UniProtKB/TrEMBL annotation, chains A, B:
<feature type="transmembrane region" description="Helical">
    <location>
        <begin position="337"/>
        <end position="357"/>
    </location>
</feature>
<comment type="function">
    <text>UDP-N-acetylglucosamine--dolichyl-phosphate N-acetylglucosaminephosphotransferase that operates in the biosynthetic pathway of dolichol-linked oligosaccharides, the glycan precursors employed in protein asparagine (N)-glycosylation. The assembly of dolichol-linked oligosaccharides begins on the cytosolic side of the endoplasmic reticulum membrane and finishes in its lumen. The sequential addition of sugars to dolichol pyrophosphate produces dolichol-linked oligosaccharides containing fourteen sugars, including two GlcNAcs, nine mannoses and three glucoses.</text>
</comment>
<feature type="transmembrane region" description="Helical">
    <location>
        <begin position="131"/>
        <end position="150"/>
    </location>
</feature>
<comment type="similarity">
    <text>Belongs to the glycosyltransferase 4 family.</text>
</comment>
<dbReference type="GO" id="GO:0016757">
    <property type="term" value="F:glycosyltransferase activity"/>
</dbReference>
<dbReference type="GO" id="GO:0005789">
    <property type="term" value="C:endoplasmic reticulum membrane"/>
</dbReference>
<feature type="transmembrane region" description="Helical">
    <location>
        <begin position="162"/>
        <end position="178"/>
    </location>
</feature>
<feature type="transmembrane region" description="Helical">
    <location>
        <begin position="283"/>
        <end position="301"/>
    </location>
</feature>
<keyword id="KW-0256">Endoplasmic reticulum</keyword>
<dbReference type="GO" id="GO:0046872">
    <property type="term" value="F:metal ion binding"/>
</dbReference>
<dbReference type="InterPro" id="IPR000715">
    <property type="entry name" value="Glycosyl_transferase_4"/>
</dbReference>
<protein>
    <recommendedName>
        <fullName>UDP-N-acetylglucosamine--dolichyl-phosphate N-acetylglucosaminephosphotransferase</fullName>
        <ecNumber>2.7.8.15</ecNumber>
    </recommendedName>
</protein>
<dbReference type="GO" id="GO:0006488">
    <property type="term" value="P:dolichol-linked oligosaccharide biosynthetic process"/>
</dbReference>
<keyword id="KW-0328">Glycosyltransferase</keyword>
<dbReference type="GO" id="GO:0003975">
    <property type="term" value="F:UDP-N-acetylglucosamine-dolichyl-phosphate N-acetylglucosaminephosphotransferase activity"/>
</dbReference>
<keyword id="KW-0808">Transferase</keyword>
<keyword id="KW-0460">Magnesium</keyword>
Length: 470, 470
């Protein structure tokens, strides 16, 4: 195994004072001069999150190996033990910093001089009543982390594993209930004649929220297997959510996009003067920026060739964080758009997950130890009974370029197919490659997915929704 | 090792329906007919907590042993691996139930028909504003559990361990700060000429609160070593706190104690009509009753001969819970009184902890494998340099009956002394005994301590405090 990576000392020496100054500045300066003082602090915490995670992972790795939280890298030629479950360090740093962040948006010392409203907006600060909501989210993050750690420790079986994100989301849901949160959804224009403009889903809304956290968690868990891919996708999704949030904040300048005008002096971007929208997206940002920090810290060590593995803890924790941002920010539909590659991967996997096509234990690409390139891994069908359904599914997927079949030229029977994952599709389309290049391909796919998501959300959605976005 | 214990099936069949009916009754009946509907639910949850813990510990024990969370019993003749860290199961059950409990006191469905006040008290129910406080306590419990588990897993060194309870109490303190909680203390009457009736401690109050959680945690951790003693003391302290809380609730009947009248129809016991006092002690009860439940479940398996060990997780978790009840209930001085045996044990241990008297690695009593009785363990002084301070300390303690010395009759030099713990004192005073009888002695001491505490609090405190108890 290559030696551990460490942050360049120069970078640390720049980042730490920068972070501290961002945290302290709102305390020193008359806060009324700042647009979003707590957000500035949050950026400081996000930088600290990056530095702390990047520092702690190599420092604590040995301890994880000692107690058996270790794995070996299946796509390498060496056999060294690599610390697993490093998502625990991310989660611990994240939750600690988010706890220390509590007084900034929620106590009065930042807001005492800023009781004024600008254009109907409370100059960008945050209502104290939302403290309970914030705390319930922290509880859910902690529950997800705890259950993730237990999963990594005890290797919980699949059927016990599935409800874990639902259990972790209970604090969020119950506080949402106790606080009498909205359970309505806005109906797309074409369906309004049928259902009305707004429909109250009632208890179904809670089912929807808990399923959202299950989805986010498992979506990240299932697209895995090559160095950096779990944390990389979490990072890109978190960045996409953060960019989306930034569009709704009150910036002191105007952005023109074609005929559309975003912002205006003290205007609130796409929030168009809605205080509620600003608050929701601020809350989401408070969760996303430190998540970006810890994920960046982990990917620094998890990038090819990996010195640390994220473990299930990261998937549970990051999935829960992203889901909570979507739930509390009320943009769950937009959030789902950022998961386009994961949804694609899931749908593609279904024939193997549901037993139509045989599913080997590991579906990750194979390392060719001569060329040192990754090749498609395959599912062997030669011993399977013939099945019309399977043949139709596989030949359709093959026609779409999503799998490559090996067919017996005499009998025309399918002997094997490449495994049905997005990683294998990328290898079919662009040829065998190194592990690092494959991860880059996945990351670019994820970025393309986010670009598509923004296009759908702000280009296409205009036809089916009006400005009334709740 | 003897076979695992299991709850009698008949008991389970009685307890589960009883618990469910207590939980469901306030939902069915017009809540206005009940005095404290959420408290009734809480009792139901406490019973469930007991059943769940008692069931899960033997069911999950093997998994703990498998991943190395195991220990062997030092005071037994057998050598079997016994699952450690079972406090984790207590904490998981406790936190899950307290999370599920959220809607009962904090949402409106129990209170919608009860907007009336009786004699100035809101018929015993709970203000929604306190939700943030409740959640912050849950966060602290979870942090304590997480850190306890990490301690059990990684065997954290002492100097890193000490601040753990302070870290775990941060959510509690920060929310207390953000909510602008009281930081004043009432001064005893004799000192009021000097300091005034009430003094605002300001930031010192936060230091005091975090030290309280450190104290509660370590007090339980240090009095350990014989089967059942950690969880037994936590159980008795929790019961004492709960009994103290019950004195402040509005009961529909009057209790006469000498010249003192407690309660009165819809009166609020010792709260004398203060809504705030009722609410504080209700919150404390909500925390204590399920704690009594999980501790009873654990002691069922941890009682001599132990089939399960609590681990540090229990000490952190139970200590934090008890401290939070004292902090949020504003009765930290009364709480400290319930720790009289622990304080005595700590003061007695000081000469060994601070190196005046040599401290062997284990100070627990020794098993005599012939008589099968526990005898005093001793610290060997024969190789130590002479020390006047040590001689004074040991001869004073020996004079008080708190240690037994072995003195060389020729030189009059102290050759050894019994270890300075309350367990050894009980063996000196009442003679060698079985492990089970020793635990009973400790439990009786703890009960006597609580009785003394109640006497001091409600008998003696009247001379130094008036009714103005904040």
């Amino acid at each position: 195994m290559p030696p551990p990576r460490s942050l360049p000392r120069g970078l640390t020496l720049i980042l730490i004072p920068l972070a501290l100054s961002l945290i302290i500045r709102p305390l020193l300066k008359a806060p009324s001069h700042l647009v979003l003082p707590a957000l500035e602090t949050n950026v400081g915490f996000a930088i600290l999150a990056f530095v702390a995670t990047a520092y702690l992972i190599p420092a604590l790795g040995e301890n994880f190996i000692k107690i058996g939280l270790k794995g070996r890298d299946l796509l390498k030629t060496y056999d060294d033990a690599i610390p697993e479950c490093q998502g625990l360090i991310c989660a611990a740093v994240y939750i600690t910093l988010l706890t220390l962040f509590i007084p900034f948006p929620f106590s009065s010392f930042l807001t005492r001089e800023r009781d004024y409203d600008v254009e109907g907006l409370a100059g960008g600060d945050f209502p104290h009543q939302q403290l309970a909501t914030y705390l319930s989210a922290l509880l859910s993050f902690m529950a997800a982390t705890m259950l993730g750690l237990l999963d990594d420790l005890f290797d919980i079986r699949w059927r016990y594993k599935l409800p874990i994100p639902i259990i972790a989301s209970i604090p969020l849901l119950l506080v949402y209930y106790a606080e009498q949160g909205l359970t309505t959804v806005v109906i797309p224009i074409p369906l309004r004649k049928l259902l009305g403009t707004v429909v109250d889903l009632g208890p179904l809304y809670y089912v929807y929220m808990s399923l959202l956290s299950t989805f986010c968690t498992n979506a990240i868990n299932i697209l895995a297997g090559v160095n950096g891919v779990e944390v990389g996708q979490a990072l890109i999704i978190a960045c996409s959510v953060a960019i989306n949030d930034l569009l709704y904040l009150p910036w002191p300048y105007t952005l023109r996009l074609g005929s559309r005008e975003l912002g205006g002096e003290w205007g609130a971007g796409l929030a168009f003067g809605s205080k509620e929208l600003v608050e929701r997206h601020l809350l989401s940002l408070y969760f996303m920026l430190p998540l970006i920090g810890v994920c960046s810290g982990l990917i620094f060590h998890n990038w090819y060739p990996a010195r640390a593995f994220p473990g299930d803890t990261l998937c549970y924790f990051a999935g829960m964080t992203i889901a909570a941002a979507g739930i509390l920010g009320h943009f769950s539909k937009t959030l789902l758009l950022f998961f386009i590659p994961q949804i694609f991967n899931f749908i593609l996997s279904c024939p193997q997950l549901f037993g139509i096509v045989p599913c080997p234990r590991h579906r990750l690409p194979k390392l060719n130890k001569v060329s040192m390139l990754l090749n498609n891994s395959e599912a062997d069908l030669s011993w399977e009974k013939p099945s019309v359904l399977r043949d139709i599914v596989l030949r359709t997927l093959s026609f779409l370029g999503l799998t490559r079949l090996t067919v017996d030229p005499k009998t025309n029977k399918i002997k094997s197919c490449t495994n049905l994952t997005i990683l294998n599709v990328l290898l079919i389309w662009f040829g065998p490659t190194t592990e690092e290049a494959l991860v880059v391909r996945v990351m670019l796919t994820q970025c393309a997915g986010s670009a598509l998501a923004f296009f759908v959300r702000y280009g296409v959605a205009g036809f089916v929704y009006d400005g009334d976005r709740r």
